[in-house]
Write a structure and sequence with these properties.
The structure holds two protein chains of two kinds.
Chain A (H helix, E strand, L loop, with lengths): L2 H13 L8 H9 L1 H18 L10 H16 L3 H8 L1 H23 L4 H12 L3 E5 L11 E7 L12 E4 L5 E4 L33 E6 L5 E6 L16 H4 L5
Antiparallel strand pairs in A: 1-2, 2-5, 3-4, 5-6
Chain B lengths: L11 H4 L11 H9 L3 H23 L2 H17 L10 H23 L4 H5 L21 H17 L3 H12 L4 H8 L3 H18 L5
Helix pairs in contact in B: 2-3, 3-4, 3-5, 4-5, 5-9, 8-9, 8-10, 9-10
The chains are: A alpha+beta, B mainly alpha.
Chain lengths: 254, 213
């Protein structure tokens, strides 16, 4: 029997309705072709098995539950779109809550970092004697013979010609005097800490530094490097008109 | 008194009241009324299709509670999108299409989550090959009911292991009794593709149920 004819017949069997009479040509073919006849019996049996699956019915409370869902849906649609969007996915709601908590924490911490003018001034007075820090060239290699880097800071404008390996003391009025080398080894004693307190209510600090801090670093070969650090402002200095623009102070002078 | 000459002279129809023909509202009309705010019209639509849709989704997902939930979701979507419904297709095609999409979506979700379910235990990989640990009991069963029960269990299991693209057309054709063109409209594909997929699905089933066919 031709394979093409068998294919055609099997397609007809497959696409016919269950137990439907086939065409005369197909019936004649099935009478001669045992394989196609077996295929027909197998297909009909299979379809009967699948079709004999017991019907499944919806539960008795289907309508009630559906009405409840529709009512709930209506209530949801009466809420604002943003609320519905956020609440539609638990992950979005959780993320939104997390963002709000983090935002609140950041906002509160930022508020607490506002400079307190009196404390800042006191800190300057305390620092007027020395703001010198010794930094060893390599950790774990600290002895008297080891060349040290001296970092001198000043709130006054720094004249490069006045730079020397000694230490410059900064007075409150901004004048600079040179004394012998007084260094603070951070590997031995801790660095001074300055605690900044917020302004009192209704007060705005105007005494914060307005000029760049100049730091000169000396290396063991006698060379020096100077860094100008513009004052960091969180708002109070911005109210003063005589502040040196950052654009003029951020030129790096190595 | 009138004399009867033949049996045809007995005009029973004239004595009987005219039959009241209750015109059953079409699905389209019910949906129109639903859109106009008639809750009863929607309830009638639900009554007409709830069993069919639940049964169809159950055959697709093999999970009764999930099928009920998805059937409700189907009706909810019909209700929500009643204003956007277009009468280019039969309503049954429309609602079966929604149910099919939901069922296939659920099957894909399950696959993603790799839920350990009956389907998961029986299938391995994309092709949905049945592991042969559930060999049929060759001993004769005493009760014909037991035979039927066992056969139904095997058929259900075999259907649930079919790949989803073959499962939907097979269930629509051999369980729901839909025509090829209706299945093509539901699945939004060509009639030729539907016929081909049904043929493939039956071949799959035959291989899995070789001891029963």
């Amino acid at each position: 029997m031709s394979g093409k004819v068998c294919r055609e017949m099997r397609r007809e069997i497959d696409q016919s309705e269950l137990r439907q009479a086939l065409s005369a040509e197909a019936e004649a073919h099935l009478a001669d072709c045992a394989a196609c006849a077996a295929f027909r019996d197998e297909r009909f049996r299979l379809r009967e098995l699948v079709g004999a699956l017991e019907p499944v019915v919806a539960p008795a409370d289907f309508d009630v539950r559906l009405r409840a869902r529709i009512a709930r849906e209506r209530d949801t649609y009466q809420q604002p779109f943003i609320f519905r969007l956020v609440m539609s996915t638990p992950a979005i709601a959780l993320a939104a809550a997390l963002v709000m908590v983090v935002g609140t924490i950041v906002f509160i911490s930022r508020r607490n970092q506002t400079v307190n003018p009196t404390i800042a001034a006191a800190g300057q007075e305390r620092a007027a004697g020395e703001i010198n820090t010794t930094v060893p060239t390599a950790p774990g290699n600290v002895d008297d013979s080891t060349p040290i880097h001296t970092v001198a800071g000043s709130y006054a404008p720094e004249n490069p010609r006045h730079s020397n390996p000694g230490t410059r003391n900064i007075a409150k009025n901004g004048t600079t005097t040179t004394t012998g080398p007084q260094v603070n080894d951070l590997t031995v004693s801790p660095a001074e800490s300055y605690r900044l307190a917020p302004d009192r209510a209704g007060e705005v600090s105007l005494t914060a530094p307005v000029k760049p801090m100049v730091v000169t670093m000396y290396d063991e070969r006698g060379g020096s490097r100077k860094i100008q650090l513009p004052p960091i402002s969180f708002g109070s200095q911005r109210l003063t008109g005589n502040r040196t623009p950052v654009s003029m102070t951020n030129t790096r002078d190595w | 008194m009138r004399t009867l000459s033949s049996i045809e002279d007995l005009n029973f129809a004239a004595a009987m009241p005219a039959p009241v023909v209750v015109q059953k509202a079409s699905d389209h009309a019910l949906l129109e009324e639903t859109l106009a705010g008639d809750e009863d019209a929607f309830a009638e639509l639900v009554r007409r299709y709830r069993n069919q849709i639940t049964s169809y989704i159950y055959r697709m997902t093999n999970d009764y509670d999930g099928a009920v939930d998805l059937a409700q979701e189907t009706f909810l979507r019909v209700y929500r999108a009643a204003s956007r419904y277009q009468t280019t297709h039969a309503f049954s095609t429309y609602i079966y299409r929604i149910a099919t999409n939901l069922a296939i979506s659920e099957l894909r979700k399950r696959k993603r989550r790799r839920l350990v379910s009956l389907t998961g235990l029986l299938t391995s990989g994309e092709g949905g090959e049945v592991r042969d640990f559930d060999a049929p009991d060759e001993r004769p069963l005493a009760d014909a009911n037991l035979v039927d029960t066992e056969q139904r269990r095997v058929v259900k299991k075999a259907i649930s292991t079919l790949p989803e693209k073959y499962r939907a057309p097979l269930v629509l054709r051999d369980v729901e009794g839909k025509s090829y063109d209706e299945i093509a409209a539901i699945l939004q594909t060509s009639e030729g593709t539907v016929k081909s997929r049904i043929n493939r699905a039956r071949n799959f089933l035959r291989d899995k149920m070789r001891h029963y066919v």
